[in-house]
Design brief:
This protein is α/β, with parallel strands linked by helices. Helices cover 42% and strands 23% of the residues. The chain is built from eleven helices and twelve strands. Helix 2 packs across helix 3. The model has no long low-confidence stretch (mean pLDDT 86). GO terms for molecular function: DNA binding; DNA-binding transcription factor activity.
Protein backbone atom coordinates (compact mmCIF):
# COMPACT_ATOMS: atom_id res chain seq x y z
CA UNK A 1 0.00 0.00 0.00
CA UNK A 2 2.67 2.47 -1.06
CA UNK A 3 0.09 5.06 -2.09
CA UNK A 4 -1.13 5.20 1.51
CA UNK A 5 2.41 5.81 2.70
CA UNK A 6 2.77 8.67 0.25
CA UNK A 7 -0.48 10.19 1.49
CA UNK A 8 0.92 9.91 5.00
CA UNK A 9 3.86 12.08 3.87
CA UNK A 10 1.46 14.91 3.11
CA UNK A 11 -0.43 14.42 6.36
CA UNK A 12 2.78 14.61 8.38
CA UNK A 13 3.86 17.85 6.66
CA UNK A 14 0.43 19.29 7.47
CA UNK A 15 0.88 18.37 11.14
CA UNK A 16 4.38 19.79 11.65
CA UNK A 17 4.37 22.54 8.98
CA UNK A 18 7.78 21.61 7.60
CA UNK A 19 9.06 19.18 4.96
CA UNK A 20 12.36 18.76 6.80
CA UNK A 21 10.74 17.98 10.17
CA UNK A 22 8.23 15.65 8.53
CA UNK A 23 11.04 13.80 6.76
CA UNK A 24 12.89 13.36 10.05
CA UNK A 25 9.80 11.92 11.72
CA UNK A 26 9.14 9.63 8.73
CA UNK A 27 12.81 8.58 8.39
CA UNK A 28 12.95 9.46 4.69
CA UNK A 29 14.77 12.07 2.62
CA UNK A 30 13.20 15.56 2.44
CA UNK A 31 13.43 15.39 -1.34
CA UNK A 32 11.22 12.28 -1.36
CA UNK A 33 8.55 14.03 0.72
CA UNK A 34 8.69 17.13 -1.47
CA UNK A 35 8.47 15.06 -4.64
CA UNK A 36 5.36 13.20 -3.47
CA UNK A 37 3.65 16.46 -2.55
CA UNK A 38 4.44 17.88 -5.97
CA UNK A 39 3.12 14.72 -7.64
CA UNK A 40 -0.17 15.04 -5.73
CA UNK A 41 -0.46 18.72 -6.57
CA UNK A 42 0.14 17.96 -10.25
CA UNK A 43 -2.46 15.20 -10.19
CA UNK A 44 -5.06 17.37 -8.47
CA UNK A 45 -4.20 20.44 -10.50
CA UNK A 46 -3.95 22.78 -7.51
CA UNK A 47 -1.44 23.69 -4.76
CA UNK A 48 -2.01 21.89 -1.48
CA UNK A 49 0.44 24.02 0.51
CA UNK A 50 1.56 27.61 0.65
CA UNK A 51 5.38 27.68 0.63
CA UNK A 52 6.29 30.22 3.31
CA UNK A 53 9.74 31.43 4.45
CA UNK A 54 9.29 29.57 7.75
CA UNK A 55 7.48 26.46 6.59
CA UNK A 56 4.42 25.06 4.87
CA UNK A 57 0.76 26.00 5.39
CA UNK A 58 -2.23 24.17 3.95
CA UNK A 59 -4.33 25.87 1.30
CA UNK A 60 -8.11 25.50 1.34
CA UNK A 61 -7.73 22.62 -1.11
CA UNK A 62 -5.05 21.15 1.13
CA UNK A 63 -7.36 21.27 4.15
CA UNK A 64 -9.99 19.30 2.22
CA UNK A 65 -7.47 16.76 1.00
CA UNK A 66 -5.91 16.22 4.45
CA UNK A 67 -9.37 15.58 5.89
CA UNK A 68 -9.89 12.98 3.15
CA UNK A 69 -6.55 11.34 4.01
CA UNK A 70 -7.33 11.13 7.72
CA UNK A 71 -10.86 9.82 7.23
CA UNK A 72 -9.58 7.21 4.77
CA UNK A 73 -6.85 6.09 7.18
CA UNK A 74 -9.41 5.78 9.98
CA UNK A 75 -11.72 3.73 7.76
CA UNK A 76 -8.84 1.45 6.74
CA UNK A 77 -7.99 0.86 10.40
CA UNK A 78 -11.60 -0.06 11.07
CA UNK A 79 -11.65 -2.51 8.13
CA UNK A 80 -8.39 -4.10 9.31
CA UNK A 81 -9.89 -4.55 12.76
CA UNK A 82 -13.00 -6.22 11.30
CA UNK A 83 -10.87 -8.58 9.19
CA UNK A 84 -8.82 -9.55 12.24
CA UNK A 85 -12.03 -10.06 14.21
CA UNK A 86 -13.32 -12.41 11.52
CA UNK A 87 -10.10 -14.39 11.91
CA UNK A 88 -10.82 -14.85 15.60
CA UNK A 89 -8.09 -12.41 16.64
CA UNK A 90 -8.23 -9.41 18.89
CA UNK A 91 -5.36 -7.52 17.40
CA UNK A 92 -5.41 -3.83 16.69
CA UNK A 93 -4.76 -0.53 18.40
CA UNK A 94 -7.00 1.60 20.59
CA UNK A 95 -6.25 5.33 20.47
CA UNK A 96 -7.67 7.36 23.33
CA UNK A 97 -7.35 10.85 24.79
CA UNK A 98 -7.86 11.02 28.55
CA UNK A 99 -8.07 13.68 31.24
CA UNK A 100 -5.12 13.95 33.62
CA UNK A 101 -7.32 12.86 36.50
CA UNK A 102 -8.06 9.46 34.94
CA UNK A 103 -4.54 8.95 33.57
CA UNK A 104 -2.88 8.27 36.92
CA UNK A 105 -4.51 5.04 38.03
CA UNK A 106 -8.05 4.63 36.67
CA UNK A 107 -7.26 4.18 32.97
CA UNK A 108 -4.04 2.15 33.47
CA UNK A 109 -6.01 -0.29 35.61
CA UNK A 110 -8.75 -0.60 32.96
CA UNK A 111 -6.26 -1.06 30.13
CA UNK A 112 -4.43 -3.75 32.09
CA UNK A 113 -7.72 -5.55 32.74
CA UNK A 114 -8.70 -5.37 29.07
CA UNK A 115 -5.29 -6.64 27.94
CA UNK A 116 -5.60 -9.66 30.20
CA UNK A 117 -8.52 -10.67 27.99
CA UNK A 118 -6.98 -9.40 24.73
CA UNK A 119 -3.17 -9.47 25.10
CA UNK A 120 -2.52 -8.69 21.41
CA UNK A 121 -4.20 -5.28 21.59
CA UNK A 122 -2.00 -2.16 21.64
CA UNK A 123 -2.90 1.23 23.09
CA UNK A 124 -1.96 4.78 22.19
CA UNK A 125 -2.84 7.11 25.08
CA UNK A 126 -2.67 10.90 25.02
CA UNK A 127 -3.33 13.11 28.04
CA UNK A 128 -5.23 16.30 27.29
CA UNK A 129 -8.14 18.58 28.11
CA UNK A 130 -11.47 18.73 26.30
CA UNK A 131 -10.08 21.03 23.58
CA UNK A 132 -7.32 18.52 22.77
CA UNK A 133 -9.83 15.66 22.90
CA UNK A 134 -12.26 17.28 20.45
CA UNK A 135 -9.44 18.12 18.04
CA UNK A 136 -8.06 14.56 18.17
CA UNK A 137 -11.48 13.04 17.49
CA UNK A 138 -12.23 15.39 14.61
CA UNK A 139 -8.86 14.83 12.92
CA UNK A 140 -9.11 11.03 13.38
CA UNK A 141 -5.99 11.01 15.60
CA UNK A 142 -8.00 9.28 18.32
CA UNK A 143 -10.85 6.77 18.38
CA UNK A 144 -12.11 7.61 21.87
CA UNK A 145 -11.94 10.39 24.42
CA UNK A 146 -12.46 9.93 28.16
CA UNK A 147 -12.69 13.46 29.45
CA UNK A 148 -13.96 15.29 32.53
CA UNK A 149 -16.72 17.85 31.93
CA UNK A 150 -16.81 17.47 28.13
CA UNK A 151 -19.12 20.12 26.72
CA UNK A 152 -21.92 18.97 24.35
CA UNK A 153 -20.99 19.21 20.65
CA UNK A 154 -23.21 18.40 17.66
CA UNK A 155 -20.59 16.18 15.98
CA UNK A 156 -19.52 14.30 19.13
CA UNK A 157 -21.34 11.20 20.37
CA UNK A 158 -21.37 10.67 24.13
CA UNK A 159 -21.15 6.91 24.67
CA UNK A 160 -21.74 7.19 28.41
CA UNK A 161 -21.44 9.64 31.32
CA UNK A 162 -20.30 8.90 34.86
CA UNK A 163 -20.94 11.43 37.65
CA UNK A 164 -17.73 12.55 39.32
CA UNK A 165 -17.88 14.96 42.28
CA UNK A 166 -15.05 17.40 42.89
CA UNK A 167 -13.41 16.56 46.21
CA UNK A 168 -11.04 18.15 48.72
CA UNK A 169 -7.79 16.15 48.75
CA UNK A 170 -5.26 16.02 51.60
CA UNK A 171 -2.62 13.84 53.20
CA UNK A 172 -3.95 11.26 55.65
CA UNK A 173 -2.20 13.13 58.50
CA UNK A 174 -4.08 16.38 57.75
CA UNK A 175 -6.46 17.53 60.53
CA UNK A 176 -9.43 17.51 58.12
CA UNK A 177 -8.73 13.86 57.28
CA UNK A 178 -10.23 12.99 60.65
CA UNK A 179 -13.58 14.46 59.57
CA UNK A 180 -15.94 11.48 59.11
CA UNK A 181 -18.07 12.99 56.34
CA UNK A 182 -17.98 15.87 53.92
CA UNK A 183 -15.87 19.01 54.28
CA UNK A 184 -17.11 22.56 53.72
CA UNK A 185 -15.14 25.14 51.78
CA UNK A 186 -15.12 27.41 54.84
CA UNK A 187 -13.19 24.71 56.70
CA UNK A 188 -10.59 24.90 53.95
CA UNK A 189 -9.88 28.59 54.66
CA UNK A 190 -7.71 27.68 57.66
CA UNK A 191 -5.18 25.79 55.52
CA UNK A 192 -2.88 26.51 52.57
CA UNK A 193 -4.34 25.55 49.19
CA UNK A 194 -2.63 24.28 46.02
CA UNK A 195 -4.77 24.43 42.91
CA UNK A 196 -4.78 23.20 39.31
CA UNK A 197 -4.55 25.85 36.58
CA UNK A 198 -7.55 27.97 35.63
CA UNK A 199 -7.88 26.18 32.28
CA UNK A 200 -8.78 22.86 33.94
CA UNK A 201 -12.42 21.81 34.22
CA UNK A 202 -12.25 21.14 37.95
CA UNK A 203 -10.77 24.56 38.69
CA UNK A 204 -13.43 26.21 36.53
CA UNK A 205 -16.19 24.47 38.51
CA UNK A 206 -14.60 25.68 41.76
CA UNK A 207 -14.10 29.26 40.53
CA UNK A 208 -17.65 29.47 39.16
CA UNK A 209 -19.10 28.46 42.52
CA UNK A 210 -16.82 30.73 44.58
CA UNK A 211 -17.61 33.73 42.35
CA UNK A 212 -21.17 33.68 43.75
CA UNK A 213 -20.08 33.25 47.37
CA UNK A 214 -18.17 35.24 49.97
CA UNK A 215 -15.52 32.50 50.27
CA UNK A 216 -12.12 33.31 48.77
CA UNK A 217 -9.50 30.60 48.40
CA UNK A 218 -6.00 31.96 47.78
CA UNK A 219 -3.70 29.47 46.12
CA UNK A 220 -0.14 29.39 47.39
CA UNK A 221 0.74 27.20 44.39
CA UNK A 222 -0.88 26.70 40.98
CA UNK A 223 0.22 24.02 38.54
CA UNK A 224 -0.94 22.32 35.36
CA UNK A 225 0.37 19.02 36.73
CA UNK A 226 -2.00 17.03 38.92
CA UNK A 227 0.88 14.71 39.80
CA UNK A 228 2.84 17.64 41.20
CA UNK A 229 -0.11 18.99 43.21
CA UNK A 230 -0.90 15.63 44.79
CA UNK A 231 2.79 15.04 45.45
CA UNK A 232 3.08 18.37 47.27
CA UNK A 233 0.44 17.33 49.80
CA UNK A 234 2.99 14.91 51.26
CA UNK A 235 5.19 17.78 52.44
CA UNK A 236 2.80 20.40 53.84
CA UNK A 237 -0.60 20.32 55.47
CA UNK A 238 -2.15 21.82 52.36
CA UNK A 239 -5.35 21.05 50.49
CA UNK A 240 -6.07 20.55 46.82
CA UNK A 241 -9.12 19.69 44.72
CA UNK A 242 -9.58 16.72 42.43
CA UNK A 243 -12.32 14.46 41.11
CA UNK A 244 -12.72 11.13 42.89
CA UNK A 245 -11.04 8.88 40.34
CA UNK A 246 -8.02 11.20 40.27
CA UNK A 247 -7.08 10.45 43.88
CA UNK A 248 -4.67 7.49 44.10
CA UNK A 249 -5.97 4.73 46.34
CA UNK A 250 -2.78 2.66 46.38
CA UNK A 251 -0.79 3.15 49.59
CA UNK A 252 -3.44 5.26 51.27
CA UNK A 253 -1.24 8.37 51.68
CA UNK A 254 -3.93 10.67 50.32
CA UNK A 255 -7.58 10.86 51.23
CA UNK A 256 -10.48 12.78 49.69
CA UNK A 257 -13.64 14.27 51.12
CA UNK A 258 -16.65 15.41 49.13
CA UNK A 259 -17.57 19.09 49.35
CA UNK A 260 -20.45 19.73 51.74
CA UNK A 261 -21.55 23.14 50.42
CA UNK A 262 -25.12 23.16 49.16
CA UNK A 263 -25.43 23.74 45.43
CA UNK A 264 -21.82 22.92 44.63
CA UNK A 265 -21.81 21.91 40.92
CA UNK A 266 -21.05 18.40 39.78
CA UNK A 267 -19.83 17.16 36.43
CA UNK A 268 -19.24 13.93 34.57
CA UNK A 269 -16.46 11.87 33.09
CA UNK A 270 -17.57 11.34 29.49
CA UNK A 271 -16.56 8.60 27.08
CA UNK A 272 -17.03 9.96 23.56
CA UNK A 273 -16.27 9.37 19.90
CA UNK A 274 -16.87 11.19 16.64
CA UNK A 275 -20.53 11.19 15.60
CA UNK A 276 -21.44 8.75 12.79
CA UNK A 277 -17.96 7.22 12.77
CA UNK A 278 -17.88 3.43 12.83
CA UNK A 279 -15.25 2.57 15.40
CA UNK A 280 -12.68 -0.17 14.84
CA UNK A 281 -13.89 -3.39 16.44
CA UNK A 282 -11.22 -3.37 19.13
CA UNK A 283 -11.92 0.28 20.04
CA UNK A 284 -15.63 -0.49 20.32
CA UNK A 285 -14.83 -3.50 22.50
CA UNK A 286 -12.73 -1.34 24.83
CA UNK A 287 -15.49 1.28 25.00
CA UNK A 288 -17.90 -1.45 26.09
CA UNK A 289 -15.36 -2.66 28.65
CA UNK A 290 -15.10 0.84 30.12
CA UNK A 291 -18.87 1.21 30.11
CA UNK A 292 -19.24 -2.00 32.11
CA UNK A 293 -16.44 -1.14 34.56
CA UNK A 294 -17.70 0.52 37.71
CA UNK A 295 -16.03 3.86 38.49
Amino acid sequence: MNHLRFLHYLDEVARVGSIRQAAERLHVAPSAVNRRIQDLEDELGTPLFERLPRGMRLTAAGELFVHYIRSRAAHLEQVRSEIEDLQGLRRGRVRIVVSQAAAGSYLPERIAGFRQQHPLVEFQVQVGDHHRALDALRTFESDLAFIFHLTPEADIERLYDVAQPLCVVMHRSHPLAAEPGRVSLRQCLDYPVVLPGRDTAGRQLLDTYLARRSIKLRALIESNSFEFLLGYLRYEQALSFQIQIGVPSVGGELVSREIADRGFPSANMVLACLQNRQLPVVAYAFAEYLRNSAV
